[in-house]
Write a structure and sequence with these properties.
heterotrimer, A mainly alpha (195), B alpha+beta (682), C mainly alpha (565), A: mainly alpha, two-stranded antiparallel ribbon, two-stranded antiparallel sheet, 8 helices, B: 682 residues, alpha+beta, eight-stranded antiparallel beta sheet, seven-stranded mixed beta sheet
Chain lengths: 195, 682, 565
């Protein structure tokens, strides 16, 4: 039995080297060589500085920018809320009948109230799964257009077209809703503003 | 078989036994009902003093606890009654058998036939020699060594016509308890005392020797596993309810447990098994074990002797076909002479047919003639007349060889005639006089009426039938086709049967066969189901695992049906039992949490009056379904030969779907009744 | 529900089916064929592995040897990974300079990953170095392969004329080199192309346009993600698993991941068909299982699309349940992923299951309780066949014969072992749930109170027992109580039933194969298929109805009635 175990141990180490290390390092190499942008995390660089990842959402609470969805991420050390903490992804995990859920949604509604015209899109007040959702639904973006127009002075029509241009449809017409990447949208807004 | 059983007595006895069987030492052999018994004990104690299990001194639920206890006790009694009733019927049969087993006196003798003195039959040992005279009871099972006698076997078989038993050959065995009517016999005892057929049969019907058959054992394991699952479900319920600040009454938990565990099948399982054996015995078959009966249900291949099973025992002469150049009358007369000394049924039928054709033995014609006796070597019989003329009959190949030997020409028509007879299912029997082929007698096999239907039924059951015959392949093929058997072994020697059984078994098939002769014994032993004829030798009876007292080989078909019925009944009631649980959940779960989780009232789809009535109704339904199914358990689910998938669809519809639907109706009705009686709120 | 959503989900299932048929045949060839396409590449690699390990892979094994080899190799793998996790702070590939891992976390993690469960009581970004992730990734390859080959060995018990169950090491290594490694490798490259990062450079700091900074954790994620899904492992390299935009950047990656997790367990059904030389049987197992899964998918999709009436009252308008869902997957993509990940017992999530509507959350929970909706690598087929044994026994009696399954008689021994295996799953789930709910340590971990609290706890143990790994993640699973109790449930859930089934295989192997006749109960008919499904559902429903009634069912009814807790 001891001998058999020793052989199994050798097998495990051999397999670890192939499947743990070899496979990973080979893929990292292929990624850097053929898909460097994606492999590095789809980073967006402006004026030589990384301003974020096109895949990772950010919090935009300053006036004149489109709001992202609520994020339930927390600071890993303190445990306090820290929205869009890309070093500690997390959802709210609140259950559907939890009073805390309703309280959270009320708070979020208060935050989004001034930003939204018309009925409140659930997408903008219910927390995302990852806490890092880079997108909002097209409807949630359009609902923010009048407020952004007011805040920035950009014509509503321009903003509306901007949103529609940025909007991404379902993959193959079937998968995923119509949606807008908030970081990209806000970069475009800033560009129009000339900042 | 069943003669004069007082059913009233059986019921009374079963009623008393239901209480006797409450004894935990008996009950624990049935794990499902044992759990019910423990539960009953708990609710009983609670009814007496609610504080024992941590309840309040007077919760006002005492009346409810008492009711639950009563229903549980009734459930147990119903289960016990089912078993007791099945046993009682068997016992009643055993009583009637035992009556025939009056103490007899045996006259022991030695090898030479000299008297050694009388001993009681119960002191006889294997190997003892005994003489039985006319009018006396045969003291033990055994083999006739000398003498021939007519014997009344009605005590065992219920058949009133006496049978002839004689030393040597395949009709030499006698059974204890039967009576010698005429003549005398000397016999060798073949069984130790208490091990006779009658003893074994009594033990079997009384259930004393009943061992759980393999399938029953497997089912018991599965039921125990289901019981364990539900025990776990119930045990884990209070902590979960506790988290929601709901408290559950112990009586309610026990009620739910009893409703969920498969009590219906648990209560009826042993009754089904006993009743199955009982049914076999009603068919006048003694099975040596329940396992053998179950195995019969699994049989894939049935090997049957042609003669006596498929066709009437004896072939009959049907026509005479003379060869060209031989006068019809001459040939018929020759056949008549050759058969005069032949006492076999075939020989006799030739004489009858010849006489019908106007031929008679002239006075003095056979004076000084000596018969040629059939032997396995020569395979022919006939007569040697005083004049030196030799007339013989035998299989065509034998006749042909005789002709060749004497140098006579063989008529070219012989082959054509022979083949034509064989093709029509007959057996050709050549007649030869001093080497000259006179003609061929057409012996015809008569297929028993109704055989075609029976083989068709077997085919629907998926059983492959094989006919074994000594006939040539052409004849065999025709008879096989007419009777509707699937396959045949022609020109079979005893060892062919054995080989075929081994082949089938090597392919994984289960083989059943019937037999009576001593040379059948090895094959009977080799077969998975060996049905020996009671008329057969004791070697054959010992080798088989069932004995047919009526010596009717076609009864194997009934045995197969009974074996299947046994399994079907178990499967059907198990399915029914499990399917019942769905409705019980819908009755009990909302009732349990009526105060703590009012939202669950949405699940009270039956709109039962109150939580108590919901629980009691489910529990009462659970109890009542047991006696309601006793007739089914004892009679067995009706079995009709059909394909497996078709039968499954049918049974799952009745017992599965029915098992889901019926309790919804039943529980609702009981709830209405309880409400009407004012018992819904106590 | 939208027609696009339904059509999209249906299309994926069709693609999975179309791929599963040839892959099923390919897998049969990998285990039974002498020659294959990959011989030239993989032959030398395999020989090298056996030489380095000093293992003779040519000997056929009986069930005992197979089981011992399975257990010993699992133990050896656990030891290797245990050591790496224990000393990660001193080992290379630790760009974030992460410190030591808590001992209970190591126990739970090793137990979880060596059993193909991938239940995670830790936050990966904050806990594990790259090397530790490589170690776990090695287990993500090796343990599904081990589960798969145990199922193959079991199936061999039904094959007429076989004398042994095969060689565990040969099966294991061939499964790795010819099935898992090539498919994962190609899938990983595809995932990189869709945006999954694959880098050893650690996190990057972004300076946002609002003047804030954002530390973005990165990882060698693509390779990990590919085998995580393909091996129905489910352990994420980021905390929110496949909901993380880096693990699952968009609808296309979501489809790839759904396809990967469904591929091999579905194919295995067809592989099984090749083994017993009855492809019709495979289609019937596939058909009834797929039907059940589709029904469950419709339940969760409609429940999530209908949304939460309590929230609707706040918003003043009805809408789908967005809590715990990322926008890019939409409701249909989230519902399908959730259905698949618990059906195939992957345990990856792109949705926070804790935030599903009660009825929506019932679907993944119930799938794990049944543990037969295709199921994970090997384990799923084993459970399906275990229930086949139970079904064929009950129904076989009903046609009046000693039951047979694929030509082998099912007798006391098989029924006993199958019944025991059937007991294990509900036993460990319910007993552990009751324990947790009745102790202070257990109650302390509950995040959402009331009925949902019961759901959280039972979900944790159902996920552990089914070796799934997904969670109602509000539960404080990293506490010692849950780390240890789920670890134990995970180990029992994996090994007890596998050993019992190997025992059955050994017993079946010794039996003669009975040829079918019209009296034989055919299991390759739709009639039997539906009956099998009925028995699975009834046994599952009867066992778990009380806990489901007190958890999700009560919560759903309460939610509809407008109550909160």
């Amino acid at each position: 039995m001891a001998l058999a175990f020793w052989r199994n141990l050798r097998l495990a180490v051999t397999l670890f080297v192939i499947l743990g290390l070899g496979y990973s390092l080979l893929l990292v190499g292929i990624g850097q060589e053929f898909f460097p942008y994606q492999a590095q995390g789809s980073l967006m660089v402006e004026k030589g500085q990384v301003v974020g990842s096109s895949l990772i959402g950010q919090e935009f609470s300053v006036p004149g920018l489109f709001h992202s969805r609520p994020s339930a991420t927390v600071n890993a050390a303190t445990g306090r809320p820290e929205p869009y903490n890309a070093d500690n992804s997390s959802g709210s995990n609140l259950g559907p009948t939890s009073p805390a859920l309703l309280k959270e949604i009320r708070t979020n509604m208060a935050f989004q109230r001034g930003q939204v015209t018309g009925p409140m899109p659930g997408n903008l007040v219910e927390s995302s799964a990852s806490g890092l959702d880079p997108e909002i639904t097209l409807q949630a973006a359009l609902a923010q257009v009048p407020a952004i127009a007011r805040q920035t002075g950009i014509a509503r029509g321009v903003l509306r077209n901007l949103v529609l241009n940025q909007a991404q449809g379902p993959f193959l017409g079937l998968y995923g809703p119509w949606r807008v990447n908030v970081l990209k949208l806000n970069l475009a807004v800033r560009q129009i503003e000339g900042r | 078989m069943v003669r004069g059983i007082s059913y009233q007595g059986v019921f009374r006895r079963a009623f008393i036994d239901s209480f006797r069987k409450l004894d935990p030492r008996l009950q624990y052999r049935n794990p499902v009902m044992f759990v019910v018994e423990i539960g009953t004990l708990v609710t009983l104690i609670m009814s007496l003093d609610p504080r024992v299990f941590g309840g309040p001194a007077d919760s006002g639920a005492r009346g409810y606890d008492v009711l639950v206890t009563v229903i549980l006790i009734v459930t147990l009694l119903f289960a016990n009654f089912a078993e007791a009733l099945a046993e009682g019927r068997g016992r009643a049969q055993a009583e009637s058998l035992r009556r025939t087993k009056a103490e007899t006196v045996a006259h022991r003798i030695d090898e030479s036939g000299a008297k050694l003195g009388d001993v009681p039959a119960s002191r006889l040992h294997k190997g003892d020699l005994v003489r039985v005279d006319a009018g006396e009871l045969i003291p033990a099972d055994g083999e006739i060594v000398r003498g021939v006698a007519s014997i009344d076997e009605s005590a065992i078989t219920g058949e009133s016509a006496p049978v002839i038993r004689e030393a040597g050959g395949d009709f030499s065995s006698v059974t204890g308890g039967t009576r010698v009517l005429s003549d005398w016999i000397e016999m060798r005892v073949e069984q130790e005392p208490g091990k006779s057929f009658l003893d074994r049969m009594i033990a079997l019907v009384e259930g004393a020797e009943r061992q759980k058959s393999p399938n029953e054992l497997a089912l018991t394991v599965l039921l125990a596993a289901l019981t364990l699952i539900f025990l776990l479900v119930i045990d884990t319920l209070p902590p979960m309810a506790g988290y929601l600040h709901a408290s559950l009454s112990v009586a309610t938990l026990i009620a739910l447990l009893v409703c969920l565990i498969p009590t219906t099948i648990g209560a009826l399982l042993s009754a089904i098994g006993i009743a199955g054996m009982d049914r076999v015995i009603r068919f006048n078959i003694i099975a040596k074990s329940g396992k053998a009966v179950e195995a019969a249900g699994d049989v894939d291949t049935l090997i049957l002797d042609k003669t006596g099973t498929i066709t009437l025992g004896n072939r009959m002469a049907d026509a005479f076909q003379p060869m060209p150049g031989v006068a019809y009358e001459d040939m018929v007369h020759a056949a008549l002479l050759a058969s005069e000394h032949d006492e076999t049924p075939e020989g006799k039928s030739i004489v009858v047919l010849a006489e019908r054709e106007g031929q008679h033995v002239a006075a003095g014609e056979l004076d000084g003639a000596s018969p040629i006796v059939f032997s396995a070597e020569t395979r022919r019989s006939g007569v040697l007349l005083a004049s030196g003329r030799e007339i013989a009959k035998g299989a065509v190949d034998v006749i042909r060889r005789a002709a060749e030997k004497s140098g006579s020409p063989i008529p070219p028509e012989l082959d054509a005639v022979t083949e034509q007879i064989a093709r029509s299912g007959g057996t050709p029997l050549g007649v030869v006089e001093d080497g000259k082929v006179l003609g061929v007698i057409h012996l015809k096999d008569i297929i028993k009426s109704g055989m075609q239907d029976r083989f068709a039924a077997l085919r629907r059951m998926g059983i492959h039938t094989v006919m074994v015959t000594g006939d040539n392949p052409l004849t065999a093929a025709t008879i096989a086709r007419e009777a509707g058997v699937d396959d045949f072994i022609a020109e079979a020697k005893p060892e062919d049967k054995m080989r075929r059984i081994r082949e089938e078994q090597a392919d994984g098939r289960l083989v059943a066969m019937t037999g009576d002769g001593t040379n059948d014994a090895p094959a009977l032993a080799q077969a998975d189901v060996g049905l020996a004829m009671n008329s057969g030798t004791s070697a054959a009876k010992e080798a088989g695992n069932m004995v047919d007292l009526d010596s009717d080989p076609t009864k194997l078909i009934e045995v197969v049906s009974i074996g299947k019925q046994l399994l079907i009944t178990r499967g059907a009631i198990t399915t029914f039992s499990i399917a019942n649980d769905v409705a019980k959940y819908f009755a009990i779960i909302p009732a349990m949490f009526v105060t703590a989780v009012p939202a669950l009232q949405a699940l009270n789809v039956m709109h039962l009056t109150s939580p108590q009535s919901a629980i009691l109704s489910a529990l009462i339904f659970n109890a009542l379904i047991i006696p309601a199914l006793i007739p089914l358990a004892l009679r067995g689910v009706r079995y009709r030969p059909m394909g497996a998938t078709e039968m499954l669809r049918r049974n799952i519809l009745i017992y599965g779907l029915g098992g889901v639907v019926l309790p919804f109706v039943g529980i609702k009705l009981i709830d209405l009744a309880l409400t009407a009686l004012g018992l819904a709120r106590i | 529900m939208t027609w696009q959503g339904l059509l999209g989900d249906a299309l994926l299932l069709v693609v999975v089916t179309l791929a599963a048929v040839p892959v099923g045949r390919y897998m049969y060839n990998v285990f039974e064929g002498d020659r294959s396409l990959l011989d030239r590449v993989m032959g030398p690699l395999e020989r090298g592995i056996f030489r380095l390990a000093g293992i003779d892979e040519s000997q056929g094994m009986d069930w005992r040897s197979y089981a011992i080899a399975f257990l010993l190799s699992n133990l050896a793998m656990a030891v290797v990974v245990y050591l790496i996790l224990m000393f990660q702070q001193d080992l290379p590939f630790n760009p974030a300079r992460l410190g030591p891992v808590a001992p209970t976390t190591i126990f739970n993690t090793v137990a979880s990953f060596v059993t193909n469960t991938n239940w995670q009581v830790y936050s990966p970004e904050q806990t594990l170095s790259n090397l530790s992730e490589f170690a776990l990734q090695f287990l993500q390859f090796a343990t599904p392969a081990a589960g798969l080959v145990v199922a193959i060995a079991f199936v061999r018990g039904f094959v007429a004329g076989r004398r042994d169950l095969g060689n565990y090491y040969r099966d294991l290594v061939r499964a790795l080199t010819r099935i898992f490694l090539p498919i994962a490798f190609i899938a990983a490259i595809a995932l990189i192309a869709t945006g999954v990062p694959d880098t050893l450079s650690g996190s990057v700091i972004a300076h946002t346009i609002t003047g804030a900074t954002q530390t973005i954790a990165r990882a060698p994620a693509a390779g990990f993600e590919a085998i995580k899904q393909l091996g129905t492992n489910g352990g994420g390299i980021f905390n929110v698993n496949s909901a993380h935009p880096f693990e699952n950047p968009g609808p296309l990656s979501n489809l790839i991941e759904e396809f990967l997790m469904a591929l091999l367990p579905t194919s295995l059904v067809f592989t099984f068909g090749h083994y017993i030389k009855n492809r019709r049987q495979a289609w019937i197992i596939f058909g009834v299982t797929m039907s059940l899964m589709v029904v469950l998918l419709l339940v969760i999709y409609s429940a999530e699309a209908a949304g939460n009436p309590l929230v609707h009252r706040l918003l003043g308008v009805a809408g789908p349940n967005w809590e715990g869902k990322d926008t890019r997957f939409g409701i249909s993509g989230s519902s399908l992923f959730t259905t698949l990940t618990t059906a195939y017992t992957t345990g990856a999530v792109n949705t926070m299951h804790d935030s599903l509507t009660p009825l929506g959350g019932l679907v993944p929970l119930f799938e794990m309780m049944l543990n037969t909706v295709f199921g994970g690598k090997g384990a799923g087929l084993l459970n399906i066949l275990m229930f086949f044994i139970i079904s064929v026994f009950v129904t076989g009696l009903m046609v009046g014969r000693t039951p047979e399954l694929f030509g082998k008689k099912i007798e006391v021994r098989e029924v006993t072992a199958a019944a025991a295996a059937m007991l294990v799953h509900p036993f460990i789930i319910l007993a552990a749930t009751a324990l947790a709910l009745s102790t202070a340590a257990g109650r302390a971990g509950i995040f959402n109170p009331g009925f949902h609290g019961i759901s959280e706890v039972v979900y944790a143990y159902a996920s552990s027992a089914a070796n799934n790994g997904s969670a109602f993640a509000g539960l404080g699973a990293s506490s010692p109580f849950y780390a240890i109790s789920t670890g134990i449930v995970i180990l029992l859930g994996r090994y007890l039933s596998m050993l019992l089934l190997l025992y059955i295989a050994g017993s079946l192997l010794a039996k003669k194969t009975v040829p079918a006749s019209t009296g034989t109960l055919r299991t390759d008919t739709w009639t039997f298929g539906w009956i099998y499904l009925g028995i699975v559902l009834i046994v599952g429903a009867l066992t778990f109805f009380p806990v489901l009634a007190l958890g999700p069912i009560a919560e759903q009814l309460a939610m509809l009635a407008g109550r909160v807790f």
